[in-house]
Prior knowledge:
Elements: H1 33-43, H2 49-62, H3 66-70, E1 77-78, E2 83-86, E3 95-98, H4 101-114
Antiparallel strand pairs: 1-2, 2-3
Amino acid sequence: MSPVVQLRTTKKPTVRQGRAKNASYRSREYLTEGRIEKLLTTAGKSRNPNRDRLLVLMAYRHALRVKELVDLQVDQIDLKAATIHIRRAKNGTPGIHGLQGDELRLIWAVVRENGTHCRYLFISERGVLLSIEWRPEAH
C-alpha cells in the first residue's frame, strides 16, 4: 500500500500589485505659493543662499525638472531682454520664458559669485556642475 499525503491548502490573500493612485497619498499635485515662500525662506538660510533660492524659484516658475535645472547655462539667459531659453528634457518642447525682477537679481548675484569663466548657472561649492545622482551609501 502506498501512503497518500494530503496537503492542506489555504487561500492566500491577494496582494495589490503596483502603486496606488497619487490621490490616495496626497490631496493635490502641486505646491502652493505659501509652501514656495517657506522653501525660499529656508533656502535663504543655506551656505549658498542666492544659488539655492534661484534653484527653487526657477523650478517653480518655469516648471523645470532637476535635469533641466542643473543643465542651465549662462548663455541661455538674455539679461537685457529678461528671457531664458529653456531646453526641455524627455522630448519636451523648448521655448523662451520671461524672467521677473527677483529672478534677474538672483541670476546676477549667482553669475557674479560663480565668476565669468563658468558656463553653467548652477555649480557646487567646489566649482563643478551640480550632480543629480544620489547614492545612499555616500550619505
